[in-house]
Amino acid sequence: MNIFGRILRLASFGESHGAAIGGVLDGFPAGMDLDLLQVQQALDHRNPSQVLTGSGRLESDRIEFLSGIWQGKSLGTPIAFLIRNQDARSEDYAFLEKAFRPGHADDTWQAKYGIRDYRGGGRASARETAVRVAGGALARQLTDKIGIHISAYVSQIGTLRLEKPFEQIDSQNVYSYRTRCPDPAADAAMLSYLHRIREAGDSVGGVVECQVSRMPKGLGEPVFDKLTARLASAMMGINAARGFEMGQGFAAARMKGSEHNDQWMPDGTTRQNLCGGARGGISTGENLVFRVAFKPIPTIARTQALLVGSGVPAGESRLESAVLPGRHDVCCVPRAVSVVEAMTSLVLADMCLLARCSKAGLSEN
After folding, report:
1. CA pseudo-torsion sign 65, 67, 70, 73
2. Burial of residue 33 (number of CB atoms within 10 Å: 0-12, 13-18, 19+)
3. Per-domain residue ranges of the chain
4. pLDDT recorded at residue 51
5. Which CATH architecture best describes the domain 3-355?
6. In the predicted model, what is the mean pLDDT of the chain?
7. Collapsing DSSP states into helix, strand and coil, what is residue 92?
8. CA distances from 22 to 7, 112, 135 (A)
9. What pLDDT shows up at residue 306?
10. Are 126 and 332 in contact (CB under 8 A)?
11. Which residues of the chain fall short of a pLDDT of 70?
């Protein structure tokens, strides 16, 4: 089932070149005033036509709410919504009926189901992330009410890294920067680099960092629903995500306990927050700090070898060289920022609702 969450559950449906994509958000508390313009704005931030490094697919991404909201308030019933596909070019993908691209999910989906929608990647397409962004934008209004602040941004593209600490960047205006890297010098350097990558007919990966401030202490459900585990699951479920680390992450493997252990301050906070805001899978009340690594988009404007034949896992096949048609991002990382924020919102909203079932519970003040 394509469902994410325990109390607040998002179900997603639709294919890249089908009539529409959409979702159902169940478990949302009743009686909340909802700003639906915020939902549309979040979709606009993810839209490929709004990012210079995007695929150029011209989708309006206008959301249609079908249920669960009346007179601007949540009813407590499932919130269903639809986003119609308007600019699909299925003819660009006709050659994929019996061909499998390198680096894509073509062969694995064929092996699993014995059938696949090869138009634009079908269900495996990042087009589906618009549903997560819409659901996350609703969830974010719940976390905003509680006081949680979520800020994701691009911290690396290829070999170029943002060297400034979080406190020195323009984190309030991430979406005014073309690469979603909120520093003028780094944004300009990354954009120039991406233009060179596009001219070379190639693609490149990068990293999205997320910092969550004003976190309540005590969010997380041991043992299998640790906050860290739920965040990792949410992020690694995003298309092209290949790595997740929290706090010091993999760097902790090179450290000694004397270096990595938290150093208490008199107010109960820690000196460096090396754990990234969670211990034992439960939030400490300090900032959550995590990073998500994304691979390069595998479809590039260069000749590549395709596996052509009667299918996987069985059947005769051969290799053919071709430049793959279609519209694709040179780098998915700028568009991934809104998806990371959405999935973070869904996780934290769900955790807040779960906390109400615990002994202490949480206040919305």
Report:
1. negative
2. exposed
3. 3-355
4. 56
5. 4-Layer Sandwich (3.60)
6. 90
7. helix
8. 19, 23, 10
9. 84
10. yes
11. 1, 49-58, 87-92, 310-316, 325-327, 359-365
